[in-house]
Amino acid sequence: MKLPHQEPLIFAKKICSLNEKEASVQCSFEETPSLAVFIEAAAQSSAAFFQEGNYKLGFLANAKNIVWLNKTVDKEFIIKLTLNLTFETMSNYSFIVCSIDEQITVCSGEFTVSIQ
């Protein structure tokens, strides 16, 4: 994945699955992530929708309906994204963060990314 971040702030590591409206991205962290870090990881994961040839720079513009469902000490997760709406340079996504085996949902919410 192409991201403008540098280590250790690159959380989105590998695209597990991708279609026009949904993506699943493996994320990993050096420390146990906070809720705010999960939101950033979800925003980074939206880069899955902008692959080679159409690389764009995006900024997290809004986060809402964020719910912490299960605390964890794990450092690897799967983030599942659904593209809800795209209007001009803005894209809105729903996300859930799951354990790596996808058995536990850690948090969920929505965010909007502004694409340059």
Summarize the structure.
9% of the residues lie in helices and 50% in strands. With 116 residues, it is mostly beta strands. The protein has one domain (12-115): Hotdog Thioesterase (Thiol Ester Dehydrase, Chain A).
Layout of secondary structure:
Elements: E1 12-18, E2 22-28, H1 35-45, E3 58-68, E4 76-87, E5 90-99, E6 105-115
Antiparallel strand pairs: 1-2, 2-4, 3-6, 4-5, 5-6
Number of strands: 6
CATH architecture name: Roll
Please, what is the average pLDDT?
Answer: 90
Classify the fold: give the CATH topology: Thiol Ester Dehydrase, Chain A
Question: CATH superfamily membership, which one?
Answer: Hotdog Thioesterase
Label this structure with key terms.
1 helix, Thiol Ester Dehydrase, Chain A, 116 residues, mainly beta, single chain
Overview of this structure, please?
The protein has 116 residues and is mainly beta. It has a single domain, classed as Thiol Ester Dehydrase, Chain A. Helices cover 9% and strands 50% of the residues. The chain has one helix and six strands, in the order ββαββββ. The chain has one helix spanning 35-45, and strands spanning 12-18, 22-28, 58-68, 76-87, 90-99, 105-115. Strands 1-2-4-5-6-3 form a six-stranded antiparallel beta sheet. The radius of gyration is 13 Å and the shape is globular. 28% of the residues are buried. The model has no long low-confidence stretch (mean pLDDT 90).
